[in-house]
Design a protein that fits this description.
The protein has helices at residues 18-22, 351-354, and strands spanning 3-4, 26-28, 34-45, 70-72, 77-79, 105-115, 121-125, 132-135, 142-148, 153-159, 166-172, 188-191, 196-201, 207-214, 217-224, 230-236, 241-247, 250-255, 262-269, 275-283, 286-289, 295-299, 304-309, 315-321, 327-329, 335-341, 343-344, 362-368, 374-378, 391-396, 402-407, 413-417. The protein has 419 residues and is an all-beta fold. The strands form 9 sheets. A 4-stranded antiparallel β-sheet has the order 2-32-31-30, with no helix packed on it. The chain has a 4-stranded antiparallel β-sheet with strand order 3-6-7-8, with no helix packed on it. Strands 9-10-11-12 form a 4-stranded antiparallel β-sheet, with no helix packed on it. The relative contact order is 0.14.
Amino acid sequence: EGGENPGEEGEEGEIPTEEELAAVKLKKVSNMPVAGFTVFLKERYKDLPPPSEEEVEEVPPAPVVPENTEVSNEQTRETTTPTTTPVKPPVVKKVVNNNPVSPPTEFVEALRYVERSTGNIYQTFADKIEERRFSGTVIPKIYDAYFGNEGQSVVMRHLKPNNTTIETFSGVLPKEKLGEDLPSNDLTGSFLVDDIKDISLSPDTNKIFYLLNIGQSTVGTILNILDGKKVQVFDSVFTEWNSFWPNNKIITMTTKPSGSVLGYMYMIDVDKKNFTKVLGDVNGLTTLMSPNGKLVLVGNNSLSLFVYNLETKGYQKLGLDTLPEKCVWNKTSESIYCAVPVFIEGANYPDDWYRGEVSFSDQIWKINISSGSSSLLVDPILVIGGEDVDGIKLALDVNEKYLFFVNKKDSFLWELELN
């Protein structure tokens, strides 16, 4: 049956006041549905205040010893008596920093994202939402998009006109110069092999791991975005997998979930190409490994959320119910941010949610894993201009200043300023 979150009695987190909720900096970023996005640090010129009057310095008076001054006319000629009274010179203006210098710059959080309907790429800064088109290459009906090489390349997936074949395009974005208008030239790139079933991006964003069914088995390949080199690291007779790349050494493989089917999670050692079991025998299993590779968020068909410790082999139940894919780890693996349903109705999870037969109205929470404490950051529907949000694709910037997410209801991109 349905139930409200947080889950069990006594596990409620800190509830903000109405004044705190009103001060929340929650913004809609995109003006269109997006297929994927990335956040990166981008250089820009600093905004300087309007120029004021020249900075001046008053030069202190110096003692002056006057020379004899002669004054004459046609009738008389006389010489003035020397005086010792100092003459104060006029104030001299001294321009400070008169030499031309380059305007100061700063590195700030920026976003790039792909419009679902056209494949056009847009860009904006996180602190100043000024959406501008970055490239105009048209690839219609993009289902999914991944940015690599710190936002300099993109992988986009869509269905061919036959509506059955998955086509994957890998492209390089045009170069952008500091202070210049955004380039208008198109993407350059090529299409990868047809019918790639699953893609995950490496943490350094320089590689992608993709799954391809060949005959009766699945093959997993790592593609280096920078040089185009490929290395096969996985093969299996089982063909239904979801992959995730939590750190440069590990790729996790979880069987595709269904509420009535037991699920299992494995991991691939990228260097050794080992394939080892992590956990299993969980109905509706969904997972999300921490960046340090020691913890795994585990969800089940009742949407109960656990943390599994790979060293102790123990489970820790968290006080909030949601799916791991509605969460994101911070870079230290100490905390998670999650989109948490306010109410969960009875359904077959996660199947009905994937199919869109069930939708959630989420709040955004932060959970400290070691202490188990949780705090509500925002309820999007309650803030000014807020909307009903079913949050997916959560991401943090490198400095953990912003939390970004996509609303599953309409695929619009949002941001929450954290500090």
